[in-house]
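User: Some background: our group keeps a shared notebook of sequences we're curious about, and every so often someone picks one and asks for a predicted structure to add to the entry. Today it's my turn. The entry only has the sequence so far, pasted here. Could you supply the structure so I can complete it?
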Amino acid sequence: MKVQKAPVRRVYPNPDQFDIFVIDWDALPQFTEEEFSELRYRLLLAMLGSLKDNRVSDKEKSESWLWLMSDDKTPFSFRTCCESEGVDYLEMRDLIVDHLKR
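Assistant: Of course. Here's the predicted structure to add to the notebook entry:
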């Protein structure tokens, strides 16, 4: 007996739902610098942990490696995460690369 699948019903949202000018930006939660610092620290641990974890996919390891090797200075870049912890990102990168080669 062949199971019939229900037809796919496509629902297209109203463009007004995505109007960024109707968002009450002041009502959104505000984060403190301490909370951003905690996020950066946890991101640093998670991304570095993924480089050594054999359960992590090759794609995720590749993304972590690109993040590690980037010199970007964005809010959650490797460089910014290290600087948030008071660590020189170039020295940290060298230590990590040396450790991963073992």
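Suggested note for the entry: The radius of gyration is 21 Å. The mean pLDDT is 86.
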